[in-house]
Amino acid sequence: MNNSQADFSDNDREREQKLVMLAKEIRKAAERGDAKAQWALGSAYARGEGVTADSSEAVTWYRKAAEQGYAYAQYALGIAYRMGDGVSKDFEKAAKWLQLAAAQGVANAQNSPILVYKEGEGLVTDSHSTSEMLHVAAERGDSIAQFELGFIYAYGEGVPKDMLESIKWFRKSAEQGDSRAQTQVGNAYALGKGVAKNYAEAVKWWRMAAEQGEADAQCNLANAYAQGNGTSKDSVLAAKWYRKAADQENATAQYKLARAYAHGDGVIRDLTEAAKWYRKAADQGDADAQDGLGYAYCHGQGVSENAAEAVKWWRMSAEQGHAAAQYNLGVSYARGSGVTKDPAEAAKWYLKSAELGNANAQDALGGAYYFGQGVIKNFAEAARWFREAANQGLADAQYQTGVVYARGEGVTKEWAEAVKWFRKAAEQGHAKAGEILRRAGEKETIQQSSPENRKLDTKKKICHLAKMADSELDAYVAVHNKIFHESASLGSLFKNLLGRGTPMKDLLMLAEQLVPAWDDLAAQIESFRIDYLSYLTKEEERYLHTLIRYVAAVRLAIDTLISRQRLACRGSQGGKNNPMTWNAHKEMEARYKDVVENYKVIGRELNSMASLVAASNPSKAMRIDLQQVTADYGNGKISKDKLISIYQEAIDNGDILAPENELAAAVLLSLIDDGTLRRSTYVDEFEKRGYSHVFHDGIDYIGIPPTSKLSVPYGSPPPLRNN
């Protein structure tokens, strides 16, 4: 802190000490019944000078003096009733006390009843006569009349709106020391209304009013220090003035002080103190503070984490039209956090916030329309809201805008436009957008090649992705087999009991290690689909879509396997509250079996489409009826050499060999097992009615492990032991 700031603080402290001593002396006289002292003590409470500001206490002492006929107290009590300051607004009582004061010749009071008339309350007159009477009083030099005259010119009440005339009268009142007028002059300079915009001049007038205890001026002065407008930026002084205004129940200052504590801006960071001030302002209905308090409850910052309480405060703020709170409330409904999950209600609040320009809400609403969550799926609406958020610089929305242009979803397909938005997102560090741009160079190379080469390149890439999936599937099957071997056989039970088996936590780790590779594969497939969409045939597009579903299904199976193993780990620890009950185990095993069966179903669908992308020469591709060929071989119609020749030719031509019964599969497998035919990945399960495998040489594609690889029976509880 610089010297001028230190001097200011010392002077402020010395003045406060003098006021406290003076207030004590005045109180003694007031308690003895001295009317003037009672009025003075009321004024002290009204301004918070020497005592804690308390408008109700001020009214108590004003009333004591007023009832003794003290004119200035009658005037002050009338103003209190008029403004509703320390008492309920009552214009009739205001008129009564102000008239009593006026009858005793109090100049301010002679004009103050007019302030009641101009609102059409208590007494009757018209706004034209009101302005004339105010002019008379203002010309005589009455500061309150000058302030009120500035006010009616500012808002055009009974006179034409005239900011030049308004600032003229505000300035006259301000120069006489009226703190409210000083605040208004400061506001005029800050906004450039009636005068040239001049923040330094605004700060000068705000400081005058702030030093007299005017809460609005204190808050404005704090804002100037916080932003460095009209003065040097100083977060410490900003926090000081926010506190002075906050102590007078200024809700805006309370909110700003809460933010200062939340971020350690000018004060030591204190989330508990932040929550306290958020609550004070929120209780007064400040929408910003209600949103801030909701955030504090959501994240447990300064208060105990409580999603329902967060929703309560966000709702209060949202209903006042606060865009951020509306978005936060939408997220709560989307996630089911603190409320029952309700996608339609989430979309409703996203829309309200989006229409107010909240970029996050616009992005979320775009997602709702894109996926049909809470609204009818509509790509055009999705694209519109993505673009709205993207134009505000939100990186995720820029990426999504690129996606819809690349796919032609809701907009005309346009790769150049897609690249533009991907680039904007990548410049902000969006990883997926950056990856797409990196691969765009490959795409440009393909664009320059011949149509035939383009088809070949896309096929190669599809096959490469399928090969990756097949490879990762082998890793998953290996982990599955190890987990079930270690946890579901009698021999393994004894090994675990003897402490020789693989610890449960290690098996869990093996399953968890599968996740990154599948997530990366899913991202690569989706990126490829976006990059090469314009070069894919409809069949290839269908295949990729099914491949994406397949990868997601296997990923779900892995997640379920992980959940199963976590349950086993907790169960192996024993204890009274052990979650590994027989029912819990059966439920988990059934769930895992279901997800495994699901990915197999999608795998069979994928295999049935493999010829669409796998055959190097589609015109020669054919589906061989292995059942008939095998029957011919069994009936002696063809020799074994002929059978082998048919099989091998089909493989060389890129055909799909799909045996439809056990005999055909057995023959085919025997030829592969003895090395007569080159083996490729078999990709389906052994079913009750027979084998149903798919083979291909040279072109790799997705596979599903046969039953022999998932041979461990379901329903057997894994052995439990402490690891």
Note down, in words, how this protein is organized.
- It is a single chain.
- The protein has 723 residues and is mainly alpha-helical.
- Among the domains are: 357-448, Serine Threonine Protein Phosphatase 5, Tetratricopeptide repeat (Alpha Horseshoe); 451-614, Four Helix Bundle (Hemerythrin (Met), subunit A) (Up-down Bundle), CATH 1.20.120.570; 618-698, no CATH class.
- Helices cover 69% and strands 0% of the residues.
- The protein contains 34 helices and no strands.
- The chain has helices at residues 3-31, 35-47, 55-67, 71-83, 91-103, 107-117, 127-139, 143-155, 163-175, 179-191, 199-211, 215-227, 235-246, 251-263, 271-283, 287-299, 307-318, 323-335, 343-355, 359-371, 379-391, 395-407, 415-427, 431-448, 451-488, 490-497, 504-512, 515-531, 538-572, 582-608, 611-614, 626-634, 640-652, 662-673.
- The longest helix has 38 residues, at 451-488.
- It starts with a helix and ends in a 50-residue tail after the last helix.
Ranges where pLDDT stays below 50 over 5 or more residues in a row are 1-9, 109-128, 445-454, 488-501, 615-624, 654-662, 678-723
On the 0 to 100 scale, the average pLDDT is 75
Shape: elongated
Contiguous helical run count: 34
Q: Which percent range describes the beta-strand content?
A: under 5%
- CATH architecture assignment name of the domain at 451-614: Up-down Bundle
Helix content: 55-70%
Descriptive tags:
723 residues, Serine Threonine Protein Phosphatase 5, Tetratricopeptide repeat, 34 helices, elongated
